[in-house]
Amino acid sequence: MTPIVLLKRLTFCAALIPAAQLAYRAYTGDLTANPIEYITHKTGDAAVMLLVITLVVTPLRRLTAWNELIQLRRMLGLFAFFYACLHLFTWAIVDKFFDVETMVQDVFERPFITIGMVTFLLLLPLAITSTKGMIRRLGRRWQQLHRLVYVAATTAVIHFWWGVKADIREPRLWALALSVLFGFRLWWMLRARALSRS
Ligand code: HEM
């Protein structure tokens, strides 16, 4: 087995850990006194974490020159979307009983829900166009479209930040991680420009 295949398998198993934990706690009846809140938090946390990790792949590939790492990006992005779907379903079905009127009201009246919905809507086209056929069909436009992942990660962290009641330590940590990643991207772009001029 090649190192990248091993890493892909390990990443796949690691990305399933939050879902497995939730399933185990549901099976053992250990979803705390407020299961809806618990599931919403856990799925939201997993979605943000995987989204940020997705953005780590490219810098890591550039720094290590291990080009095969790029194969992890799609899987990580799709896992982030998977947890975002579980998160949305928990809110829509378990919390709001799929009452469209209450849901629409929530989206328009609570800014933190609005930005959560914006994040989900940004992730949706990325997930739909993540197939090999779509990558081929969209060509250069695919790359342009997939830059939206940076916007989605930013709105996800804003959603997290606006959603927490008092303790902002966790969203602040994700905001810091994103700033470092954006900083790296900027530095890399400036460096490439300088190299092409010289
Ligand atoms: C689709 C629309 C969305 C809705 C309606 C929504 C709704 C919620 C709700 C109700 C909470 C709980 C807040 C509380 O307990 O006070 C929450 C928290 C959270 N959501 Fe969302 N969300 C959405 C999209 C997203 C997306 C796309 C992501 C990530 C990619 C995300 C990440 C989070 C995180 C990280 C938390 C905080 C978890 C914690 O406190 O540990 N949400 N969201």
Instruction: Report the bound ligands by name, code or SMILES.
Output: protoporphyrin IX containing FE
The fold-level CATH name is Four Helix Bundle (Hemerythrin (Met), subunit A)
Architecture per CATH nomenclature, i.e. the level-2 architecture: Up-down Bundle
C-alpha Rg (nearest Å): 18 Å
Please give the count of helices.
Answer: 9
Major β-sheet profile: none
Portion of residues in beta strands equals under 5%
Q: Which word captures the global form?
A: globular
Q: Structural class of the helices, strands and pairings? A: mainly alpha
Q: Regarding quaternary structure, how should these chains be classified? A: single chain
Number of domains: 1
Order of helices and strands: HHHHHHHHH
Distance between the termini: 42 Å
Helix content: over 70%
The residue-averaged pLDDT reads 96
Q: How many β-strand runs?
A: 0
Regions with pLDDT < 50 over 5+ consecutive residues?
A: none
So what's the CATH class?
Mainly Alpha
Structural features, described:
The structure is a single chain. The chain has one domain: Four Helix Bundle (Hemerythrin (Met), subunit A) (Up-down Bundle). It has helices spanning 3-27, 35-64, 71-95, 100-109, 111-128, 132-138, 140-146, 148-163, 169-197. It contains 9 helices and no strands. It is globular and about 60 Å long. Helix content is 84%, strand content 0%. Bound molecules: protoporphyrin IX containing FE (HEM).
Short description:
It is built from nine helices and no strands. The protein has 198 residues and is mostly helical.
